[in-house]
Specification:
CATH class of one domain: Mainly Beta
Largest sheet: 4 strands, antiparallel
Strand content: 35-45%
Helix content: under 10%
CATH superfamily of one domain: TolB, C-terminal domain
Distance between the termini: 48 Å
Radius of gyration: 19 Å
């Protein structure tokens, strides 16, 4: 167990080490682009380094009023060329060949079936967590276990796993509470309270004790002791839709906010000090949030990221050389692999 954890630390910190000038070529070269013309998960797409977009080979035919299986969550896994996904039939899928083929690892329709926006915490190859609301599913090899947050916790905003111990888990909840578990989400202890309704959160990739949470019209809240105590950060009158650290440079953090009001643009901020100070990096004149479940920072270039294109549709890559956009796919989620492949999921809107 300790040896596995040590190997995993090297795996996930390699891109960060690369950004700081220390090249770990064996780890960087372990990931590769998908070696297939199409991928085997419904509505999944990918764009390779040459900008070529490819689609799924198993997109179901859409007939008006007919139910279709869709992909509702996507995450990079804890081993080279490994991805995880959750589909609307309640299945958790894994790919070990960079997204080409997929196998069902767990079926939990009572938790995930037909529910939109479940999430995955998939850092460790030996333990993967999936969650929505107060429900948590833990996969350990072939064992599937389900757990439930305390009833008074509020829904989960974020579940994060310690890179050095897959049984050490922390949670931030909608009611503004910070929880901690040392037995893999089986039992929880409330460690701190933010006293504000939360809608987003992120953990510093290099410091599991450093957390930034986004409030509902209360801006940013920062903890440096694992959620025990909190201080108020900037943007205090804005709704913080989401927060993410750059995998290319953990000093860089992106924050999407909305000041409120009809026709008021959403705003994208950038921080290089963990959320203490921010600078405006852009705004969206159509009042479409940059994030809206889609903001993916590039794994190697801290200035490049993927967002929606147009009025919330399609996908766009923004970087120092300008923007590149692809079609109108109505995208709901996107992740980059460490090798630079951008995966994204098309949202299928069905009639009721």
């Amino acid at each position: 167990m300790k040896r596995t954890a040590a190997i995993l630390v090297v795996l996930f910190l390699a891109p960060l080490a690369f950004a700081r000038g220390r090249v770990v070529r064996s780890v960087l070269n372990a990931w590769h682009a998908p070696r297939c013309e199409s991928v085997g998960l419904p509505w999944l797409r990918f764009i390779d380094d040459n900008g070529v977009r490819r689609a799924s080979s198993v997109d179901p035919p859409l007939i008006w009023r007919q139910e279709a299986v869709t992909t509702n969550a996507l995450a990079i896994g804890g081993a080279p060329n490994t991805l995880w996904a959750i589909t609307s039939d309640g299945n958790i899928h894994q790919s070990i060949d960079a997204g080409c083929t997929w196998n069902v690892r767990a079926s939990v329709p009572e938790i995930f079936a037909k529910k939109w926006r479940p999430r995955l915490a998939a850092r460790h190859p030996e333990r993967v967590y999936a969650y929505i609301g107060k429900d948590i599913v833990r996969l350990t090899g072939g064992t599937v276990e389900t757990f439930h947050m305390p009833d008074d916790a509020g829904d989960l905003v974020l579940l994060e796993v310690d890179r050095q111990d897959a049984l050490h888990v922390r949670a931030i909840t909608h009611f503004g509470f910070a929880y901690e578990s040392f037995d893999g989400a089986a039992t929880w202890t409330k460690v701190g309270t933010i006293l504000n309704e939360l809608v987003s959160a992120a953990f510093d990739p290099l410091d599991f004790d450093s957390i930034v949470a986004g409030g509902f019209w209360t801006g940013l809240h920062v903890s440096r002791d694992g959620g025990k105590t909190w201080s108020n950060g900037p943007l205090r009158t804005q709704k913080v839709n989401d927060i993410t650290f750059s995998p290319a440079d953990p000093r860089v953090m992106w924050v999407d906010t909305w000041p409120g009001g009809v026709g008021i643009p959403s705003r994208l901020y950038k921080s290089t000090d963990g959320g203490e100070t921010l600078v405006l990096a852009g705004s969206n004149s159509r009042s479409v949030h940059y994030w809206q479940e889609l903001f993916a920072p590039h794994p190697k270039d801290a200035e490049t990221f993927a967002t929606h294109a147009g009025n919330g549709f399609g996908i766009k890559i923004t970087g120092p050389e300008g923007d590149r956009a692809w079609g109108y796919e109505n995208v709901q989620d996107a992740v980059w692999s460490p090798s630079g492949t951008l995966y994204f999921v098309r949202l299928v809107i069905r009639s009721l």
